[in-house]
Amino acid sequence: MESMIDLIESKLPEMSKGHKAIANYILSDYDKAAYMTAAKLGEETGVSESTVVRFTMELGFDGYPHFQNALKEELKSKLTSVQRLNYTERFSDDSDAIRDIMSADMENLKDTIASLDDKAMSEAVKMILGARKIYIMGLRSSSPLSSFMHFYMTLLFDDVIHIHSNSTNEVFEQIMPITDKDVMIGISFPRYSQRTIKSMEYAKVRGAKTIVITDKDNTAMTENADVKLFAKSSMASFVDSLAAPLSLINALLVTLGMHRREHIVNSFEALETLWSQYKVYEVGRDRNTEEEP
Fold this sequence. Notes:
- By secondary structure, the chain is of the alpha/beta class.
- It is 55% helix and 8% strand.
- It contains 14 helices and five strands.
């Protein structure tokens, strides 16, 4: 699929003066242009808002919102951390930033629910329940997601392997024993981790079932996936938005728990005894009761 930048560059020689001004601005500051309104982009380039809209339609888009969404999607996998940091320049103050970021997380959750594939979720549950071993991998910014999933999966299943390391060799040493009786769950969002992609490829070659949790289809992350689970993670700054991916994983865990209820009960009964014996959690007390001297 032709990239947005390539598309604009290929049509640049044929463009009118006004459209060239828009095109050149996007090519030089595409990370800023992606988050501008049509009116703001027109103001920056010295053309009218309607000219900006016509520009996007001549590129083959239904209108400016369609063009803007496509540009944002492409940028997610291309922007450097410094370019992502520049996004914060659009916030007028701390309050504006806080509300904007939290609103964006809410939109990501809504979009994820609206596009949820029930059949894929059911297939993922079936694969995990039927696996001998469960391998979970999520590196860099996806590491908190894989850690969260691993923590609760160990309550549900006896043999869960968490792949986590900064060394490529160590990663492959951990997944080397995977077989066709196992399942590999790979988690990655833009910018996609090459080690996670290669590990998914290796698991597939070994005959293991593969489940991917990512943001969209037709990427390197989905090439070797038997089941694809998608969660929206549009970023609003240098920090990745993990609200929707975490919610998707939470939903998957709860669904698996419905099928492993007896195992969970046994696990928690044993754990509660250990937690109490070794004082893992603080024991609450009645605030109205005075402490003994």
